Amino acid sequence: MLKKNEIAVVGAAETTRLGVIPDMSNIQLHADCALNAMADAGLKPSDIDGIACAGESPTNMAHYLGLTPKWVDGTAVGGCSFMIHVRHAAAAISAGLCTTVLITHGESGKSQIGLNRAPPSRQSLMGQFEMPYGVYGPPSMFTVPVLRMMKETGLTEEHLATVATIQREWSSQNPRAMMKDLCSVDDVLNSRMIAWPFRLFMCCLVTDGGGALILTSADRAKDMPQKPVYIMGTGESVETPMISQMADFTRSRAFRVAGPTAFAAAGIKHADVDHLMIYDAFAHLPIYGLEDLGFVGRGEAGPFIMERNTAPGGKLPMNTNGGGLSYTHTGMYGMFALQESVRQMRGTAPAQVKGAKISVCHGVGGMFAASGTIVFTNEA
Amino acid sequence: MSESKRPLPQPTPETKHFWEGTKAGEIRLQRCDDCANVYFPPRPFCPGCASRNVSVFAASGKARLFSYVIHHRPAPGFTPPYAIAVVELEEGPRLMTNIVGCPQTPEALPLDMALVPHFEKMNDDITLPLFQPAKG
């Protein structure tokens, strides 16, 4: 079994630019951050013997970057694919299948150049049983369970709006964030209606960009230029491709498998966590995440955020880059959550949490379809 | 709601009975003959116990409004605002649908409202199971 802190992140970088990048195609965004990550780690393509990616196939990326991998992973379950790649890569390195893995994400989500996205077939279950009813992108689907959550747990529109306002407090400290202006609960509630009860500011951005990670053994990491960030524990799961078929509209089964699996592997308790990332495609995701990962009880996440526990100066700093709501969201944001966890563990984040030693990074894929959780630490 | 441009389902061998059912004015579910699990969407085995001994039966049609959003952006075949809803059938399974016969407002769409099917014929092959508020 993969041991705690046996594997480390030794290279981490985003694309040189973020936001609107009309002069790069999807695959070049993968390559741009991959080159930056190799430079960060002081490695050459010939040093990389494993490749994992989503949005482009590992074949595309190995060829484009000039790699000859002996281990590949094309797990593509949406925005948390990269958390799952980290988990798989750590296991592969531990098992001796390869020594050094590059994980890439790039997505021309805004400019849509060379993007590999196809709508579901009308013969698929989603095509037959969801698409006929006017679903049109994630804002019309991912949001569907929330009214039930509100009725059963007391979650309010103000709670959801506060998720957005507090993440703007974080992004206001981040020069690379797309949205940096502070906003009020009224600003959020008065922003354009997208899918009631969701307003524009409760929905993620749509941007271009990418990020890459390089993992190797903790032993090798000792001789490398960057401060190693260790993989302390990992978890993954999937539930259903159809939001309408989620077993419980107030809980994510995938979250409730991935999160506790990672915590158990890391041997940590919630009080040990100094920094938290919860993939926020929409404002309800941190609510489900905080409850499903057990940081708070049922119905407590909204008040917990409103009491500023996750805000700058709070006891559980969360989504400190500004998140998908305010930092960037290319489509599969999970890589950017991982990048922020690594920056926090290296001590190089724009809104650095002083003395943070353990960071939990929790991702979602599809519409509550999949999940991956990584626990990082900067102490071996 | 304009109905002409919706992306319509294309039935597969495993789902044909469901779409034949809606044409006949029925919502056809499946029940496991071994463990009695009632499930949806259609497949020729039980996702609870993996048994292939399953039967098709007509649901009562009684349902409650389980959750929804009111979509405010245009989508092919729809004029916003319109509700994208999930209803829970009396037998347990939930399905996505639209709610017709009432305003598309939060006030007219309270959660747990009783619903009955409204079978909307789209063409000779496809009839969609929409829902409307139950009378009385």
Task: Briefly say what this structure is.
The complex is a heterodimer of chains A (380) and B (136). Chain A contains 13 helices and 11 strands.
Features:
heterodimer; A: 380 residues; alpha/beta; Peroxisomal Thiolase, Chain A, domain 1; nine-stranded mixed sheet; two-stranded antiparallel ribbon; 32% helix; 18% strand; B: 136 residues; mainly beta; three-stranded antiparallel sheet; 6% helix; 35% strand
How are the SSEs placed, and which strands pair?
The complex is a heterodimer of chains A (380) and B (136).
Chain A: E1 7-14, H1 26-41, E2 50-53, H2 58-65, E3 71-73, H3 81-94, E4 101-108, H4 125-129, H5 146-153, H6 157-171, H7 185-190, E5 193-196, E6 198-199, E7 208-217, H8 218-221, E8 229-238, H9 253-266, E9 275-278, H10 285-292, H11 301-306, H12 323-326, H13 334-346, E10 358-365, E11 370-377
Parallel strand pairs in A: 2-3, 2-4, 9-10
Antiparallel strand pairs in A: 1-7, 1-8, 4-7, 5-6, 8-11, 10-11
Helix pairs in contact in A: 1-2
Chain B: H1 16-23, E1 28-32, E2 38-39, E3 54-58, E4 63-71, E5 82-89, E6 94-97, E7 114-121, E8 127-133
Antiparallel strand pairs in B: 1-2, 1-3, 4-5, 4-7, 5-6, 7-8
